[in-house]
């Protein structure tokens, strides 16, 4: 068995982080997990072309899934910070950078790291 290279490790880690957030939001249905798999497949090519971007792939996959969910189902993840007003989704910051976080621009706060949304919403936490 061959060892898993750093690019595949980054992709697997990013997949796990986004899946943890989907589980925390109770939206990890089979068709939604397929959206994650589609994004991982697309980002595999991207990170092969730019290996230095491996630390950015978790945020990119989170954004890909968020965009795909918006097209099919609606906003995700909804902000757990703002208790009043219209429901709104969190955004990933930085848009292209390491250490991605879910942020609420309305309240101006970091809510959770990508993969740790459960700790902010009272759902399951990733380990």
How does the SSE layout of this entry go?
Blueprint: H1 6-24, H2 30-49, H3 57-72, E1 91-93, E2 101-104, E3 109-113, H4 117-121
Antiparallel strand pairs: 1-2, 2-3
Helix pairs in contact: 1-2, 1-3, 2-3
Structural class computed from helices and strand pairing = mainly alpha
Which regions are unreliable across 5 or more consecutive residues at pLDDT < 50? none
Bin the helical content. Answer: 40-55%
Strand order of the largest sheet: 1-2-3
- Structurally, the number of domains stands at 1
The chain-level mean pLDDT equals 90
DSSP strand tally: 3
Radius of gyration: 14 Å
- Give the SSE order as H and E letters: HHHEEEH
End-to-end CA span: 26 Å
* Beta-strand percent range: 5-15%
Work out the helix count.
4
What sort of overall outline do the alpha carbons produce when their principal axes are compared?
Answer: globular
Biggest beta sheet summary? 3 strands, antiparallel
How would you explain this protein's 3D organization?
By secondary structure, the chain is mainly α. Helices cover 47% and strands 9% of the residues. The protein has helices spanning 6-24, 30-49, 57-72, 117-121, and strands spanning 91-93, 101-104, 109-113. Strands 1-2-3 form a three-stranded antiparallel β-sheet. Helix 1 crosses helix 3 and helix 2 (30-49) packs across helix 3 (57-72). It starts with 5 loop residues before the first helix and ends in a 6-residue tail after the last helix. The model has no long low-confidence stretch (mean pLDDT 90).
């Amino acid at each position: 068995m061959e060892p898993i290279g750093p690019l595949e490790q980054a992709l697997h880690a990013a997949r796990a982080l986004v899946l943890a957030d989907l589980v925390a939001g109770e939206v990890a249905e089979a068709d939604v997990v397929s959206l994650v798999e589609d994004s991982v497949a697309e980002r595999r090519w991207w990170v092969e072309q730019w290996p230095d971007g491996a630390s950015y792939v978790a945020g990119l996959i989170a954004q890909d899934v968020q965009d795909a969910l918006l097209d099919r189902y609606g906003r995700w993840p909804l902000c757990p910070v703002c208790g009043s007003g219209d429901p709104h989704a969190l955004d990933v910051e930085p848009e292209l950078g390491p250490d991605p976080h879910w942020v609420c621009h309305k309240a101006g706060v970091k809510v959770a790291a990508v993969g740790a949304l459960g700790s902010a919403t009272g759902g399951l936490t990733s380990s």
